[in-house]
Amino acid sequence: MDALILSRIQFALNMSFHILFPTISIALCWVLLFFRHRWVKTREQSWLTAYRFWTKVFALTFALGVVSGITMSFQFGTNWPGYMERVGNIAGPLLGYEVLTAFFLEATFLGVMLFGHNRVSERVHLFATFMVAFGTTLSAFWILALNSWMQTPQGYWVDPQGIYHVASWIEVIFNPSFPYRFVHMVTASFLTVAFLLCGLSAWQVIKKTADEATPKVLKTGLILAAILIPIQIFVGDQHGLNTLHHQPEKIAAIEGIWHTEKGAPLLAFAWPNKDTQTNDYAIEIPKGASLILTHELNGELKGLNEFEVHPPVAPLFFGFRIMVAVGMLMLAASWFGVYQLRRTKGDVLKFPRYFLYGLASMTFAGWLATLAGWYVTEIGRQPWIVHGLIKLSEIVTHTPPANIAFTLTMYVVVYLALIISYVGVLKYMAEHPKKTEAEPTAESGEAIAIVANEAIDSTSGEQK
Amino acid sequence: MSWAQIIPLIFMGLLGFALFVYVVLDGFDLGVGMLMHRANTEERNTMVASIGPFWDANETWLVLGIGILLIAFPKANSIILGNLYIPVAFMLIGLIMRGVAFDFRVKARLEHQLGWNYVFIIGSGLASATQGWMLGRYVTGFAEGWQFTLFALAIALAVPATYTLLGACWLLLKTEGELQAKATRWAKIAWVPVVLGMILISLATPWVSTVVRDRWFALPQIIGLLPIPLATGAALIALRWILNSPRVRADLCWLPFVLLIGSLVMGALGLAYSLYPYAVIGQMTVWDAASSTEALNVILIGAAVAIPAIFGYTIFAFWVFRGKVRELTYG
User: Fold this and answer.
1) CA-CA distance, A46 to A38, in Å (whole number)?
2) What is the rounded CA–CA span in Å between residue A195 and residue A123?
3) Which stretches are transmembrane (chain B) (predicted)?
């Protein structure tokens, strides 16, 4: 294998591993702010318990996001040196602004948010939590601006040496696909967190380790998901139309349209066949794709035959269907969950067992949908690094392939161990919610005093 | 000098500054990590508590440093990271191991916690040693030959020793009682290889690099430059002397940390003087390596606003956690 294919696999691996954690931390921090705010307002102990437990999940997730993010920042230089040499004038400031405005903000206030609760006032603590949440979202803003620019570039000019320069920053940042991509990703993050909240809470009910916070957390997750999933489906549809306009070959691959046709069918399932340029075993809804994408029964959709280069069909075709299927499952689960909340008047212990097991099995459903979605959008850009302008093969490293094979193997081993540990520890925490303190208490005097104060606070809260 | 010539120098200064802040800040927490193998369970918890609120922000300075290299000097970045492909990967694995062990070591089931402690210690050591190796390779301009390998190996040992001393000085400042007494002993032990390492590097750098030799050993520069080694030596001797005083465990507990930072500042100035104006020594100057002036202008505007703000809230965070370390709990 050559450096190009190895670098692509390694980058895809790093990206896939990294994206799992921001996907959780972007939205989870806003949820934590909500929990903390409820505690300040109501003084109900359950909100503080919820905050404490999910802060641990957040700290763990954030740490994994940080370390894999540092790896990402080195990958640009080690594996894709041509990238910065060609588009550094555009990508550089965007990445630079991410570090300067977002990274330091979230990393610095994280310390105050996690450990500063009895060193700063409640107001300052809420402010620190807000800054972390704001920082993670701002970080997503810059990264998605750059990623979207690579998909739908504009606002640039090229000099005779092939170096890209900025003509208009507004056009670069607010490129045509950016608003869709940003909203789609942030909503995906909230949905991922919603199902994580539901999944771990359901597991606590199943394992009889539920505490006073569990019903509140499960309710928060279900309602969040029930509200957001229809919005996400709408945003996703708009994003698709935007892609059809700017990257029609990506849509052709997603829909398995090999040859331009009018009244194209929507394929519920098929096996795209690269050799015959047809779809085997197709289960289709006649004229469905044309209707959805052009809003006309006999609308014309461009096929892959119209493009000199186009992305591979199978990963896009299946990736898209996995994402949509998970989305539909989320819609069904969350709406059924809201019905269950009404039926049991919020008593999650009375939820049917099969539904609890269903939610627990969907704990990481958001990851699956997000990964599938990213594969569709990123593989859909191949073989370009900047769509229509620069190919990946132009920017790859000259590092010996053996070196890349070595580091790739190392990353596979480490990431596999980490993902198993991460999921294992979450499961352990859900099963032992009281045991896993942030740090083992060496000198418990202070801790006991705090607990006693909180007990008094919570009882007085209830009396009100 | 025109603005187009000045702005790459500003960014080289920012790059050096970011990496220096990284060395001091992540240096002390990597050092604390390495020292953990000499501590018992309770002391380990206190040690982690002393760095827990800071490590994440500390590591961000590395991201800023590598970001500036990538953004402002893309061509130098290709050469440097191309030459350091394998050690960079090992450093990243070290940082990953350490960063995740911070959290896993207290959340995992009891029988796994000991294992995560070792992941933490080994990760800290691996990250420190690979950083030293990379510094050694970089300073010699990636030259090949046994003497250059030996040189890089020496720095790969000197950097962890320096971080260990930083870590011990940090613990002197942040802890009390038995652990503080241990930290004093650790500092005394680490001081020896740090001094030996600095002498060795000061002698070896001009020996392995003609560029550096010509720069330092010529009249009249050598007279103007003398304060750098002299001040470094004075700070290190003062550090060792103060470690014997009982006051180092009382009102002067901050002094060793400050003295060590002082000597590191001198070291960084000396290094900057050796390297200027190269981005890759003997191969590429900062002007050859720099991005376009307009892109640098855009980032500079952001940096001018953001860096003072970063300073502001970094100081705020250190102030919130001022004084002797207390146990950490999420709340």
Assistant:
1) 10
2) 29
3) 6-25, 84-104, 116-136, 148-173, 185-204, 216-242, 254-276, 296-321
Residue B162 lies in a domain: yes
Q: What is the CATH number of the domain that holds B89?
A: 1.20.1630
Sorted by where each begins, the domain ranges of chain A are 3-260+302-433
Tell which of A56, A75, A89 to mutate to test the B interface (max B CBs under 10 Å). Answer: A89
For residue A125, what are its two tokens? 């603590």
- Give how far B4 is from chain A: nearest CA, Å: 15
Between CA A207 and CA A209 the distance in angstroms is 5
Reported as a single tens digit per residue, the pLDDT across B180-227 is 999 999 999 999 999 988 888 788 778 777 777 887 777 777 787 888
Structure confidence by residue, pLDDT tens digits, B71-90: 888 888 888 888 898 899 99
Domain count, chain B: 1
Per residue in B132-163, pLDDT (tens digit) is: 999 989 888 888 888 889 889 989 999 999 99
Q: For residue A454, with 0-12 CB atoms within 10 Å meaning exposed, 13-18 middle and 19 or more buried, which class applies?
A: middle
Q: ipTM of the predicted structure?
A: 0.85
Question: B299 CA to chain A: closest CA distance, Å?
Answer: 5
Return the structure tokens found at A351.
């939820």
Is B326 within a domain? no
Chain A residue at shortest CA distance from B299 = A93
Q: What are phi and psi of B177, to 5 degrees?
A: 65, -140
- Compare all CA atoms of chain A with the CA of B297 and give the residue at the minimum distance: A93
Domain that holds residue B301: 7-321
Residue A121: DSSP 8-state: -
In a domain, B286, yes or no: yes
Strands B284-285 and B278-280: antiparallel
Rounded to the nearest angstrom, the minimum Cα separation between B203 and chain A is 32
